[in-house]
Amino acid sequence: MLTLVQGATATLQCSSEGNPVPVHTWTRNGNSLAGSRFQVSEDGRTLTISDVVEQDEGTYVCLASNAAGDVSVDVMLEVQGKLIKTVEFL
Known about the structure:
Layout lengths: L1 E4 L4 E4 L9 E6 L2 E2 L5 E3 L5 E4 L8 E9 L2 E12 L10
């Protein structure tokens, strides 16, 4: 499990080898990722989520596929609210 505070950047990595070279795809809770805060590296192995919010929580799955088959790895992302420091003046 990866736990981050709201507003942080999450970097998830997926490593695989194969011949032919596997194609990597990322999903969250079974759904494809959409939005400008989700960036997948050119080789598909790294998913970066900028400015995480509580709605980003869930299970992220990296699926590596080639002619020989598929393999997947998953990671649970938990997002905690920011700690806000208050100052009281008397």
